[in-house]
Amino acid sequence: MFLAGAGLVLLASAAPRLAGWQLLWVALGFGVILFLADFDWRSFINYRWFVWGIYILAVLLLFATYFFAPAIRGVRGWLMLGPFQFQTSEFAKLALIIVYASFFAKRHVGIAYARNLFLSFFYFLLPALLVFIQPDLGSVLILFGIWFGYLLVSGIRWKHILLSSVVFAAVFILLWFSVLKDYQRERIIGLFYPERDPFGINYSVIQSKIAIGSAGFWGKGFGQGTQSQLGFLPEAQTDFIFAAFVEEFGMLGGIGIIAAFLIVLLRIIKIGIESDNNFYKLICLGASILFLAHFVLNVGSNLGLLPVIGVSFPFLSYGGSNFIINSILIGMIQGTVIYRRF
Asked: Which of 77, 213, 311, 319 is most exposed, with minimal Cβ within 10 Å?
């Protein structure tokens, strides 16, 4: 896949010590895709224990992470598995997509009923609270986007969406004054005042803009990006990998990355539309929402259009957990293409 290859090239330039690990994750990810694409998992979706077992496992892993995982940069988000780190919030995203695909496939006609709305929100709320206290606000927003995305296409009435928006606006105001930490509020404020605290809260975004703005059309070349190579651009291998890639490979490279992502996204949407099974359609929908939310939040923060909340670029950013979970979704989707012919 072009995105995975581009990520490896950038890591070889900006973070060579991580390139070998990422190559391992890419190999494992492609193995997962090939296995699931050739595995007829259609019968499993009819078993409630399979769907809810995945969801319960995700919740238990989030509990274990909060109580037993070590804090890494102030966040308890990774379980230690020998030399490996597993980010449990990534598995929660997969579990939520599978649960919603099963739930909305059966209840999309009556989703406007208060009981169904409450149940769908509860399935989001439980893992979201456990992720929020880690704290990982970026993953909470992704989980919320998955839930809200399913609501938008489930046939819910617009007046209910409007009412929900008012409720969430009130909840956000409450969170702003009573729950959000100072640095989280500062990041949001910094979005509207980009010149504020250039050596503090806005430092990363300023360096990202310098990296992108100085790249030109062709870029500075492999290994020649000053912001990423000299350490001015924080998290160049994850949160700001798009800026680091553009700096070295120019606007042409950035356009290529965005085009490759859109091709993947449109392909998933096309498979979902052509599927004759509601569950398969909704799996494709969930994957599309997940990938698009990650893309928008990552690129938006790199360009200074959205707050920096630590969200990866699908298949491009360094990280095993995200890459493997994304690969599972791609494998499941590819499996629907193969087995719907029989």
From this structure: 213
Residues near 178 by beta carbon (within 8 Å), at least 6 away in sequence: none
Domain ranges for the chain, please list them.
2-339
Burial class from Cβ neighbours inside 10 Å (0-12, 13-18, 19+) for residue 175 reads middle
Positive or negative: CA dihedral 239, 243, 246, 247: negative
Amino acid at 262: L
- Dig out the tokens for 208 from the structure: 């990202």
Quickly count: other Cβ atoms within 10 Å of residue 180's Cβ: 17
The neighbouring-strand residues paired with 87 are 78
What distance in Å separates the CA atoms of residue 147 and residue 168, rounded to the nearest whole number? 13
CB 134 within 8 A of CB 66: yes
Separation between Cα atoms, residue 16 and residue 246, nearest integer Å:
18
pTM for the whole thing? 0.92
Phi, psi of 134 (to 5 degrees): -65, -40
The span from the CA of 283 to the CA of 265, in Å, is 13
More confident residue, 59 or 176: 59
* 324 CB-near residues (< 8 Å, 6+ apart): 25, 28, 29, 32, 90
Region 282-294: mean pLDDT is 94
CA-based diameter of the chain, in Å?
A: 60
Model confidence pLDDT, tens digit, residues 248-261: 999 999 999 999 99
Burial class (CB in 10 A: 0-12, 13-18, 19+), 195: exposed
| pLDDT of the residue at 228 | 86
Calpha distance 262→256 (Å, rounded) = 10
Q: Which residues have CB under 8 Å from 238's CB, separation 6+? A: 310, 312, 317, 318, 319
CB hemisphere CA count around 50 (13 angstroms):
10
Alpha carbons 192 and 156: distance in angstroms, whole number: 33
Task: Tell me the DSSP string of 225-277.
Answer: -HHHHTT-STTTTTTTHHHHHHHHHHHHHHHHHHHHHHHHHHHHHHHHHH-S-
